[in-house]
Design goal:
The complex is a heterodimer. Chain A is of the alpha/beta class. Chain A is about 40% helix and about 20% strand. The mean pLDDT of chain A is about 90. The longest helix of chain B has 17 residues. The model of chain B has no long low-confidence stretch (mean pLDDT about 85). In chain B, about 15% of the residues are buried. In chain B, helix 1 packs across helix 3. Chain B is α+β, with helices and mostly antiparallel strands. Chain B is elongated. Classes of the chains: A alpha/beta, B alpha+beta. Chains A and B meet through strand 1 of A and helix 3, strand 4 and helix 5 of B.
């Protein structure tokens, strides 16, 4: 017993001996006014932009960031409760730009935008910090996006492929599955060597708790970090959350890894920034947003990149989410973000309520990277399918008016209906590429034409099961070679023809 | 054109340059008349602040504050004054002393817009932070 006591005391002594305290000359100022998460500070003549400030209030130290430098005062946001800060309190400039802790230890954690633990586990211990605001990688360090990032969602992987290093916007009204797409994509990154960061801005904490539980259940928390700035957090935290997430992603990028980062959602981020800007008395512009909201999002999304071999070859894929008000994409923030990103996944309520989930509108959704971000096999089957879907849409609208249709048109309509059916997919069940290829191959080569439309939903999983059991080697070939050779497609065709269950 | 508090302070300082005490009273009176005429009396707080700053700068003096937990000896104060003079590089120091028992020990020096915290309180805070890390 006494040895343990001695040991503890010895440890404590050692620890204290290692403590060095040094006093240094610091520039100080005084709080002129404080309120709504904003403080005005006099003095601080040599404060820098986005420098950290320490507010020495009676209730303890509070931290803030310089956001405005004026002639004789400094405007700062407080990254904490403003309670306890009084007029006249001392404010010290810390000579440090705002930064967040980064390390491998952040994986699997739920953190606030300053890197503090929110999941009740221990704090992140690291001596490595990355600045929250960082200039995006330049032209010479970059390279074309060419490697696919599989979302596991059939409608997206087939028609709106996303590549590693791309910025793809997920846009749509509330409650129609925007977050679901992002979460399914994260779940599908298992075993793909992609680190995921989910940044929740202004979300309900109950929703995030649900998401974290789901990710844990799917085993996705092993490579995922959740950065949470909840609805009850001050606007300053909401404002820095995406940038903090991006800084953490850059840590993995610098190690040459692939990262997927989801910003959910940038509408609330813009609103938080508007709040801060108005409180700092910056002039309001359209929809009362300040003049630099475009720059706010463009500098954030520009940090998504694909680096070339000489610079480590890592990538950051960004999936920003934007919520529209009853489908109004011509509002200020949606148009801004649409123009910044490399394409958008557009979700429509009509499709959602018809039961076509995910409710992706393949007509107006685009990916500017295109088929460069698909494996060859997928390119082969999906290219044909996209065309057939487009033809079906055109004909379906036209066919509503007349019943006398020729054989050709009828056939196209039947095919289209089947394609729409197979694009339906449940939540939390992402599908591997090779299985997707097999399904698309079946439908585009007409092997499903004899299955009744209403039975497709039932037929599809059973067919996949059958192929998995009988032709695992075929799937493996597609996966490893990424191609659909004549030989494999012949084998695949044979197998699907043999599978006669449910067919009439 | 809007005249800022800083500009008023600079104007007042220039007009007071090399004036006798009697003339000063006259100038101050005129100055307040101008402020009233311009409807700028509300700027007074700022003007006083900037005037103090500009005056100190011109005469190369520095306002300093020594905060301690207990009374300290005259000798220590003179030593500290010398130290502040050297740090701030000024000729004279306008010193004020303050007692703040919550510091527990040590001293906090403030001069101009700089501060050095040598108090026991901040050291203990730092040690707590270090040990709980």
């Amino acid at each position: 017993m006494s040895t343990t006591k001695d040991f503890i005391i010895e440890q404590l002594k050692e620890r204290i001996a290692g403590f060095k305290s040094e006093a240094s000359e610091k520039t100080f100022g005084r709080v002129i006014s404080v309120g709504d998460g904003i403080a005005r500070v006099s003095g601080l003549g040599d404060a820098m932009m986005s420098e950290m400030l320490e507010f020495k209030s009676a209730a303890g130290s509070r931290f803030g960031v310089v956001l405005n430098l004026e002639e004789d005062s400094v405007g700062a946001i407080i990254l904490d409760d403003t309670e306890g800060i009084k007029e006249g309190d001392e404010v010290v400039a810390l000579k440090r730009i705002l930064e967040v802790p980064v390390s491998e230890a952040i994986i699997g954690r739920v953190l606030n935008p300053l890197g503090k633990a929110l999941d009740g586990k221990e704090e992140i211990k690291t001596d490595k910090f990355y600045p929250v605001e960082k200039v995006a990688p330049g032209v010479i360090t970059r390279e074309m996006v060419k490697k696919p990032l599989q979302t596991g969602i059939k409608a997206i992987d087939a028609m709106i492929p996303i590549g590693r290093g791309q910025r793809e916007l997920i846009i749509g009204d509330r409650q129609i599955g925007k977050t679901a797409i992002a979460i399914d994509t994260i779940i599908n990154q298992k075993g793909q060597n992609v680190k995921c960061i989910y940044v929740a801005v202004g979300q309900k904490e109950s929703k995030i708790a649900g998401i974290v539980a789901k990710l844990k259940e799917a085993g996705a928390m092993e490579y995922t970090t959740v950065i949470l700035a909840g609805a009850s957090d001050p606007a300053s935290l909401l404002y820095i959350a995406p940038f903090a997430g991006s800084a953490m992603a850059e840590y993995f990028l610098d190690k040459g890894e692939d990262v997927l980062i989801v910003y959910d959602d940038l509408t609330k981020h813009a609103a938080a920034y508007r709040e801060l800007s108005l409180l700092l008395r910056r002039p309001p512009g359209r929809e009362a947003y300040p003049g630099d909201v475009f720059y706010l999002h463009s500098r954030l999304l520009e940090r998504a990149c694909k680096l070339n071999k000489d610079f480590g070859g890592g990538s950051i894929t960004a999936l920003p989410v934007i919520e529209t008000q009853s489908g109004d994409v011509s509002a200020y923030i949606p148009t801004n973000v649409i123009s910044i990103t490399d394409g958008q996944i557009y979700l429509v309520p009509d499709l959602f309520y018809q039961g076509n989930r995910p409710a992706v509108d393949a007509g107006i959704s685009v990916s500017r990277v295109g088929s460069a971000a698909q494996i060859k096999a997928m390119k082969k089957v999906a290219g044909k399918m996209r065309l057939e879907v487009a033809q079906y849409r055109e004909l379906a609208a036209f066919a509503q008016f007349g019943s006398d249709l020729d054989e050709e048109t009828k056939k196209k309509l039947e095919r289209g209906k089947r394609i729409v059916e197979i694009l339906k997919q449940g939540q939390y069940v992402p599908m591997a590429v090779e299985e997707q290829v097999a399904i698309f191959f079946a439908v585009t080569s007409g092997l499903m034409d004899d299955v009744p439309v209403e039975k497709i939903v039932e037929f599809e999983p059973k067919m996949v099961e059958y192929i998995q059991a009988r032709g695992a080697d075929v799937l493996k070939t597609i996966k490893t070679s990424g191609e659909l050779s004549d030989e494999t497609s012949a084998k695949l065709k044979k197998m699907i023809e043999d599978f006669t269950e449910i067919k009439n | 054109m809007k005249i800022t508090a800083k500009q008023y302070a600079a104007a007042l300082l220039t007009s007071l340059e090399g004036k006798s005490e009697k003339q000063t009273g006259e100038i101050i009176k005129n100055f307040s008349d101008v402020l009233r005429a311009n409807n700028n009396l509300s700027l007074l707080g700022g003007i006083i602040r900037f005037f103090n700053e500009a005056w100190d700068k011109k005469n190369n003096t520095v306002e300093a504050e020594i905060v301690t937990a207990r009374e300290i000896s005259k000798n220590t104060i003179t030593e500290l004054e010398k130290f502040i003079k050297a740090r701030a590089g000024s000729d004279t120091v306008e010193l004020s002393e303050k007692i703040d028992p919550s510091l527990l020990g040590g001293v906090v020096l403030r001069y101009g817009n700089k501060s050095i915290d040598l108090s026991l309180k901040s050291k203990i805070n730092k040690l707590t932070e270090y040990l709980t890390e």
